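re: ur question from earlier - yeah i can do the single chain one, its not a big deal. heres the input i used so u can compare w yours
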Amino acid sequence: MNIAVLSGYLGNDPDTTYTKDGLSISKFSIAFSMAKDQTGWVECVCFDKLAEMSGNWLQKGDKILIQGRLQYEQWQDKNGNNRNALKLIASNIEFITIKKNKDDKQNARKTNNQNARKSNQNTVFAEQQNHPDIPDDIPF
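and the output i got, formated as tokens:
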């Protein structure tokens, strides 16, 4: 089983590109603590909606939790030197901290999403009030 979960800080803004078929691909690196005074780096690659989300919301310095699979690549550079890289192909990203004021458009989206969440919470509360048989002391 190949599952990796890392928490770290973006080392650069995501670079989002599109294939000729319209598939979005976003690449960025994250720095994470390996041991006392040691930092590891890994390149992360996202596809499709996850790529668009990371390209729109993340920027250098943001702290994230990223889950995916590790992919090891080997090649020879122009000078014939053997090179290798470890990449994390993302399947999920959790935003731990994101910098504020990346741009007004994203702040507006964030506010709209928060308002939608509040609206959904109010709807759930209203539905619970309409069902007196649901106990108030559910243990989870």
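The longest strand covers residues 82-97. not sure if urs matches, ping me
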